[in-house]
Amino acid sequence: MNTALVLIIGIPLIEIYLFIKIGSQIGAFNTVLLILTTAVIGVAYARYEGFNTLKSGIAQLVKNEMPVYEIISGATLAFAAFLLILPGFATDLVGILLVIPLTRKILLSRFVKTNINKKRKKNNYIEGDYEDISDDNDKKL
């Protein structure tokens, strides 16, 4: 079966199940309030972490290094903010895990090699052209 089809059907089923279970424990109004609260706080924190990632990326560029982790981390934060806006507890949990820097780094570590720039060999020479002019001066004397 196609993975996208399983996700399209499975995620709403999990969310509905969690709505029913949590709603029966804390009430319908509190459930809706909790979903709205997690969305607002989560998006605000995702925005804060996004600015931190942007600052880190600029620092990498100043060092003349490619900000690979920062680019992927920024895309992950945008996806996390999207998950936090969606109503539901399972998507909020995944979104919060992606927003927190430690868990985001753990989850992304298998996809991104953060020390690409460290492995790159640095050359200690300057390229240039030269012309030997000593022979021309000897002929004139």
Name the descriptors.
single chain, 141 residues, mainly alpha, 7 helices
Helix content: over 70%
Number of helices: 7
Q: What's the pLDDT, averaged over the residues?
A: 82
Secondary-structure-based class equals: mainly alpha
Shape by Cα distribution: elongated
What is the chain-wise order of helices and strands?
Answer: HHHHHHH
Main sheet makeup: none
The radius of gyration over CA amounts to 26 Å
The domain tally reads 1
Give the strand tally: 0
Low-confidence stretches: 114-119
The N- to C-terminal Cα distance equals: 88 Å
Strand content: under 5%
Protein model, in words:
- The chain has 141 residues and is mostly helical.
- The chain has one domain (12-116).
- It is built from seven helices and no strands.
- The chain has helices spanning 3-26, 28-62, 68-85, 89-99, 101-108, 116-119, 134-140.
- The model is unreliable at 114-119 (pLDDT under 50).
Write the layout of secondary structure elements.
Layout: H1 3-26, H2 28-62, H3 68-85, H4 89-99, H5 101-108, H6 116-119, H7 134-140
Helix pairs in contact: 1-2, 2-3, 2-4, 3-4
Give the structure's gist in a few sentences.
This protein is an all-alpha fold and 141 residues long. It has helices at 3-26, 28-62, 68-85, 89-99, 101-108, 116-119, 134-140.
